[in-house]
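Batch job 17 of 40 flagged for manual review because the log was empty.
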Amino acid sequence: TAMHEIMREGMSDKRYLTLVLGQWHNARQHVKLPLFKFDTPEGEKRVMVRDDGKSAHTIFTLQKSWPGYSLLEAELKTGRTHQIRVHLSHLGFPIAGDDKYGDFARNRELMKQGLKRMFLHAHSISFNHPLTGESLQINAPLPPELQGFVDKLDAVRG
């Protein structure tokens, strides 16, 4: 379909919001690290940063921060499997609640605090309509469980 071609050919601008563990300091940061896909001995699909991997480019923009947490917007310039998750984990900023590449001990604490899933949310996509060429943007607000966690962080900070 036309929409699949738009996505496959990189003719869209897809952005995610993610909450990471740690204090992100750069307002905007380009991350260009190659990603390599492999299977674990248990047969699970994984991805890691490795020189012989496929090129991958993500732009991270700091949205907000709290002690120990940072809310980032991730803009995909390439669309590799687990790209955002692996880039952030490799840099030492695992996504809150990530059960593959995250901080498992911290994830257990976060579960007790009410974060029951990974904090990664596709929040906007922009593209030109395949027939009319009109510029379109679709936005999706944070779902209640993720917005609720942000609200708790705001409340603690006062």
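Reviewer: the log was empty due to a logging misconfiguration, but the result itself is present. The mean pLDDT is 94. Unflagging and moving on to job 18.
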